[in-house]
């Protein structure tokens, strides 16, 4: 049986490595050297199977994760559903195309499902970090205090990234088209995934784990 610690570590590693794998894979396997406008756009490149596969693995681990009470189980199931929604309902691509994505893909219904799923996914992950991960039934150690700060910072980073993506998509994309060359959505999504990964690695006792020398705080 896979322990919860192993599940947390696996989810964290997959979250951190996803954007790196997509970039390196698209360069080495498909000679697609430019970074896509968003992580979701890699679905339409030669990295589609990797993109879907990693999201399905994350979804499976989240479904298997039950935590300490019903809230953990419900949040895990919701995150699983949202991750599968991101994987199987691809985003539309309408910007100037390259040899990486030679044809436009535009299905507003599917793209809307994708957007809602991605938003829900990061909101649930933020809930994990901000609320569920900070709960403890044991005496609070100094390391636990540090971990709680890390969880909260990661949650705020994810939420801030979502706000940044929404601000760019609905307000700045058309007013400041020059920003497209910087791929802001891709980098904001990457930052959110790294925050998600760090949070779960911390919960998996890879970072700031308790030691026998920790002094209990009353």
Structural write-up:
The chain has one domain (4-203). The chain is 65% helix and 0% strand. The longest helix is centred in the last third of the chain and has 34 residues, at 142-175. The mean pLDDT is 88. The chain is elongated. The protein has 218 residues and is mostly helical. The two termini are 35 Å apart. Helix 2 (48-64) packs antiparallel against helix 3. The protein is built from six helices and no strands. The protein has helices at residues 4-30, 48-64, 70-88, 108-132, 142-175, 184-203.
Major β-sheet profile:
none
Number of helices: 6
3D shape: elongated
Strand and helix order? HHHHHH
**Total count of strands:** 0
Strand residues, percent:
under 5%
Provide the structure class: mainly alpha
Structural key phrases:
about 0% strand; mainly alpha; 6 helices; elongated; single chain; about 220 residues
Topology:
Layout: H1 4-30, H2 48-64, H3 70-88, H4 108-132, H5 142-175, H6 184-203
Helix pairs in contact: 1-2, 1-6, 2-3, 3-4, 4-5, 4-6, 5-6
């Amino acid at each position: 049986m896979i322990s919860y610690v192993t599940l947390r570590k696996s989810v964290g590693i997959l979250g951190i490595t996803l954007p790196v794998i997509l970039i390196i894979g698209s360069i080495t396997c498909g000679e697609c050297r430019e970074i896509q406008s968003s992580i979701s756009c890699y679905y339409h490149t030669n990295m589609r199977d990797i993109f879907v596969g990693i999201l399905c693995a994350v979804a499976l681990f989240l479904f298997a994760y039950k935590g300490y009470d019903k809230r953990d189980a419900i949040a895990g199931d919701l995150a699983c559903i949202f991750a599968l929604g991101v994987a199987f309902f691809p985003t539309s691509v309408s910007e100037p195309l390259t040899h990486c994505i030679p044809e436009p893909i535009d299905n507003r219904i599917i793209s809307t499902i994708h957007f809602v799923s991605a938003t829900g996914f990061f909101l649930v992950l933020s809930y994990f970090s901000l609320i569920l991960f900070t709960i403890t039934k044991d005496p609070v150690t100094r390391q636990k205090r540090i971990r709680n700060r890390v969880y909260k910072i990661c949650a705020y980073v994810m939420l801030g990234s979502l706000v940044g993506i929404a601000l760019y998509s609905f307000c700045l994309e058309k007013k400041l088209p020059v920003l497209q060359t910087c791929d802001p959505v891709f980098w904001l999504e990457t930052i959110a995934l790294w925050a998600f990964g760090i949070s779960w690695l911390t919960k998996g006792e890879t970072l700031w784990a308790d030691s026998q020398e920790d002094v209990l705080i009353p």
